[in-house]
Amino acid sequence: MNVLVVIGFTLVQLLLIEIPIVAFEIAPHPTAIEHAKGSARRHGREYGAWGLAVIGAWLAIRGIVRLLSTGERRAMTQAMTQRKPMWLVVVSTASPWRAAGR
Predict the structure, then answer these.
(1) Cα 52 to Cα 46: distance, rounded to the nearest angstrom
(2) φ/ψ of residue 46, rounded to 5
(3) Structure letter (DSSP) for residue 100
(4) Residue 58, SS3?
């Protein structure tokens, strides 16, 4: 089963590379490539700004929803009020062996 997964993954990877190469060999129209470059040059900043705005809105909405959901708030409160939080581990820098916990 694992061999089939690896073979399938490899075929999908190769198809993503081979399809554009074969398409360019069949119909090498440099005008289409130049048209795409020109369009990206003219509207690239606008598309980038819209993309960043969408990502920012998604992150803000996700944060607000997580803040307002009771389960997440309870889990965050419990993580912050542990007796020994994992992020407050004292690490000795005198020896690399002690710092690695050996």
Answers:
(1) 10
(2) -65, -45
(3) T
(4) helix
Residue 25 clears pLDDT 60, i.e. is over it: yes
Q: What angle do CA 21, 22, 27 make, to 5 degrees?
A: 100
Q: Is residue 10 part of a domain?
A: no
Mean pLDDT of the chain: 78
Instruction: Evaluate whether residue 18 is within a structural domain.
Output: no
Asked if residues 93 and 99 have their Cβ atoms less than 8 Å apart, the reply is yes
Report the C-alpha gap between 61 and 48 in whole angstroms: 20
Residue with tokens 């440099």: 30
Q: Does 80 reside within a domain? A: no
Cα separation, 72 vs 66, in Å, equals 6
In a domain, 67, yes or no: yes
pTM surpassing 0.85? no
Q: Cβ(99)–Cβ(91) under 8 Å?
A: yes
Q: How many domains does the chain have?
A: 1
Amino acid at 61: I
Show the domain range for 64.
45-74
